Amino acid sequence: MKVAIDMGATTGSAPATLDLEELLATRLLVQGNSGSGKSHLLRRLLEQSAPWVQQCIVDPEGDFVTLADKFGHVVVDATRTEAELTRIAGRIRQHRVSVVLNLEGLDVEQQMRAAAAFLGGMFDADRDFWYPVLVVVDEAQLFAPSVAGEVSDEARKLSLGAMTNLMCRGRKRGLAGVIATQRLAKLAKNVAAEASNFLMGRTFLDIDMARAADLLGMEKRQAEQFRDLARGHFVALGPAISRRPMPVTIGAVETSARSTSPKLTPFEAPVDAADLIFTASPEEIVRPVVRRPAPPPPPSTNELLAQVARARPEVEAAPQSLFPEIDEAERESQIDAIMVELLGDPDASFRTVAVLYQDFLVRCRIRRVPGEPPALPAFKRKLAVARVAPDTETAQSDGWQTALSLSETLSDDVQGVFLVLAQAALTNAPCPSDATLARLYGTHSASRARRLLTWFEERGLLVVRLDFRNNRVVAFPDLNAETAAGDPNGPDTMVDERGAAE
Question: What residues form the membrane-spanning segments (predicted)?
């Protein structure tokens, strides 16, 4: 059955149609800089094909959720576990429901993991449910990057593998990939190369123009025309559209995105601008500046039943120690001394926890520390606290105990950074530099340290501000304390102080 989708008009106002059945077999790639009309094109395609084929939209910005009101798409909020998203994707294929996977509000790595789980669930559906599905992925360069970015390798591999399966192997499973990207140079070549239909919009960089011209079979001198394309104007090529490059103007749409391009309005600065900026209102003084994160989704019924049904193992009696019995306090002091010695190595911050744990176990055997050594989770906790090593007065304060309780809610790799910041706030010490925080985080990247501060702030644990000298101050609402101003671009002072002390 041939279904012609009206995408707009070509030169001379002739209708520009797209063969939907051919598109399902040959896939589509859309490229254009921000503001070129990519989202408008995708919305036109989705609206025109909604009555004919099941649709799934991977939406990183939440722009396509408005399709639900007009065409009955179900919005799937991605703030769920990866297992839940995989199971939902399987049921979507089973019941043939058009959906929008809303990734808005998640950071890039979380978006990649959620999209990978969702696409994987659709790809792994039972053979009986391999019905045709139009899978639209907006901002595809986020999910199939050409080079490794600042996200973890695991998240990148999961997302890239899911996108590769969609574009390379999805046709036999009824999955027709439609991917849109701002830059072809940022999109993995093995993903882009599987598309046989192209709609190329406005772009300015030479590398992107050259690659677009190459995909369309145009000469290099013709690539300059991509700079002159207006918003909503594209050059189309492919078996589902045209056998020769053809200019297309995308038609109007029935729904609109929640986010729109900014419009200029008359601007008139207030007369008392300085007072408005530098004078706090009574409401601001009373109200704390804390951004609380959204509450996590409640566990599903299946997860609760599994937790209740899980049998609790019987506690085995501790084996008798082969070493002479000593006081527990003395044993803890020996372990603390080993931790201090372990962290005395300047390279300890850049060694993995597994390597440090093995070194710790060897040192415990050498010094014949009695009893079972701490397990890996307990070691990680001791490692985080030992990296801070507060003085006796700070360690016994209520604020430090509160900081320890707050750190227990964090993952093991960031507890040490949080405790160092908390100690600086309780002692009114200068805020550690990016270099110091990066070393404590186990990296040489200052940008990762800054993102970690943003991550803490988004969870309402602390508030970061800059003074008039661009020095950083970190405040802890729960501790009622804040650090002194510190230069974020300064050296790693903790290493310098240790070296001076030695």
Answer: none
